[in-house]
Amino acid sequence: MTHPTFASLELIEPLLRALQHEGYTQPTPIQLQAIPHVAHGRDLLGCAQTGTGKTAAFALPILQRLHQKPPPPPPPQGQASRFGRSGPSRRTRALILSPTRELAAQIGESFAAYGRFLQLHHTVIFGGVGQDAQTKILARGIDILVATPGRLLDLMGQGYVDLTGIEVFVLDEADRMLDMGFIHDVRRVIEKLPKQRQTLLFSATMPSDIEQLSKQILIDPIRVAVTPPSTTVERIEQRIYFVEKADKRALLIHLLDALKVERALVFTRTKHGANRVAEALTKARIRAEAIHGNKSQNARTRALDGFKRGQLRVLVATDIAARGIDIDDLTHVINFDLPNVPETYVHRIGRTGRAGAAGLAMSFCEQEEREYLVDIEREIQTHIPRADNYPHASRLGPPPVTSLERGHHRRPAQQQQRPQQQRHPHHTHGRQDRPRHGAPRPRGEHHEGPRRDTNAPPPQRGHQPGQPSAQTPAQGQPRQHHGQPPRPQGPRR
After folding, report:
1. Within 13 Å, how many C-alpha atoms sit on residue 465's CB side?
2. Residue 20, exposed/middle/buried by CB under 10 A (0-12, 13-18, 19+)?
3. CATH superfamily assigned to domain 236-411
4. Which pLDDT tens digit goes with each residue over 168-188?
5. How far apart are CA 418 and CA 368, in angstroms?
6. In this structure, which topology does domain 7-226 adopt according to CATH?
7. Residue spans of beta strands (DSSP E) within 288-394
C-alpha cells in the first residue's frame, strides 16, 4: 500500500525542500483534504482538533499561492500613511487572525519554517509588548500578517496596517475566538477586508454559532473534517478523580510523584487559581510555573520555553493562555478544575496524544463540578473511566453513572457557571488582547472561561440566496447568553 506524500499534493519544490528540512514525510488527513482546495482558491470550513497539523494545512497552500502569483503594486505615491507619503514597499496579501499571543507566535514560526526558501515576508503582531518593533517591520512591508484581534485593530486605527490588499483571510481557532468574546473585534476586521478574497475558517469544535458564522463569511465553501466534532482522541487514556476542592492540591502532588510524571500541563479555571497551584507545587519541590493573562508576555514566553526544554516539570495554565502550546511529547494533561463547557474538555486533553502518540488525561471533579462531568460525558458520548484506590477521595463517593441519551438537554450556559468569586484584594489587570465596546466577558475578575456572543450584525459578505452550495454546512442556532453584564471597557492593547 502506497502512502500519500507532500509531492502528490503538487506543492512546489521550495516548500517540499522546507518540509524535508523539518522532518515531515507524510501529510496528515487534514492536510490531505485541505491543501488541494486552498491551493485552488476555494473558501474552506475545516473542523480539526489540535495536533492534527491544520496550521500546515493552510500555511503551505497560502505560501504557494502568494509565491506563484505576482505581488500587486505598492501603494500609490503620495498616499498618506504613518510610514510617510510613500507607504510601505509592499502590500499585505494574507491575514491570519489568532485568538492568543502564543498561538499567533506559533503560526508565525510555521510560516518561517515552511517559507524559508521563498522570498516572502511575514510578521506577527500581538498585545502585551511594545508596538515599536512591530511597526518598524510593517513599515518595510510584508506579505503575510499573523495577528491577534486587539493589537491588529489598534494598529489599524493608528494607520500602521492596511488591509485593502488582502487576498486570503484565515480565521483560526474560531470557536475559541468566539469563546473569548472577540466576536465584535472579528467582525470589525472583516468589515475592512476586500469583498473579493479567499476565506478559510478552522475550528477544533463545530458548535452552532460557528456554523452561523461560516454562513456569513464563507462563499460556497469546501467542508473538511478529521475526527468528528467534540470527540476525543482514541489514544488518550482518560481518568476522573472525585475529590473535594480543599484536597485537590494534595492529590495533584501525590499523582505527580506516584506516577513519576516528567512533564504535565495542568489546567485551572482562574488566573489566581493557577498561581496558587504553581506555588503549592514549588513548595513541594516540583518545578512549576503558571501562565495566564496577568503575566507579561516575556514571563509567559520564558515559562513556555522552560517547559519545552524540560527545565519545568509542570506548567499550570488557564485555557486562554494554553492556546498555542504545541509539545509533541507531552505525556500528561491534568484538569485541576473541570471545565464547565464540554468542548473545552476536548480542547484541553487534545494537548496530549499528539501525532499518534499515547497520552493520559486526568481530571479532578469536586462536588460543584459533578454537573459539568455529566455535560462532558454526554457531549463526547463516553463514560470517562473512574479512578480507584487513590488518597483524598471525596467523602461523598462517586456519583451515579451518567445517562448518555441525547434527549437529555444540557443546562443553559448561564446556569453552568460557578458562583462569582470574590475579587482578590491584590488583583491587577493583565496586559492581554481584550474584547472591546462592551463585549461580554466572563463573570468574576479572574475568570478566563468561555463565552460566545453572536448578537452582532453580520458582515456584508456572505452566502447569497439561491447560490448553489451543496457543501455549505447547515445553519445552526446561535446560543443565547442572558444576564451577563458587560465588563467595563479597558484600554486597547
Report:
1. 0
2. exposed
3. P-loop containing nucleotide triphosphate hydrolases (3.40.50.300)
4. 999 998 888 887 788 889 989
5. 8
6. Rossmann fold (3.40.50)
7. 288-291, 314-317, 332-335, 359-365
DSSP string, 107-166: HHHHHHHHTTTS---EEEE-SSS-SHHHHHHHHH--SEEEE-HHHHHHHHHTT----TT-
Residue that the C-alpha cell 502568494 belongs to = 66
CB atoms < 10 A from the CB of 328, how many?
11
428 burial via Cβ count (<10 Å: 0-12, 13-18, 19+)? exposed
Residues contacting residue 126 through CB under 8 Å, at least 6 positions apart: 100, 101, 104, 105, 147, 148, 150, 151, 297, 433
| CA 476 – CA 480 distance, rounded (Å) | 12
pLDDT class of 323 with cuts at 50, 70, 90? low
Looking at residue 491, its pLDDT comes to 46
Q: Domain map of the chain by residue range?
A: 7-226, 236-411
Tell me which residue of 136, 142, 52 sits closest to 96, measured CA to CA: 142
Tell me, yes or no, if the two domains 7-226 and 236-411 fold the same way: yes
Answer for the pair 36, 58: CB distance below 8 angstroms, yes or no.
Answer: no
CB 448 within 8 A of CB 269: yes
User: Which of 149, 141, 12 shows the shortest CA–CA distance to 89?
Assistant: 141
Question: Rounded CA gap, 20 and 5, in Å?
Answer: 11
Q: Which of 201-205, 322-326, 478-482 has the lowest mean pLDDT?
A: 478-482
- CB atoms under 10 Å from CB of 182, counted, come to 26
Can you give the length of the chain in residues?
493
Compute the distance between CA of residue 185 and CA of residue 150 in angstroms, rounded to an integer.
7
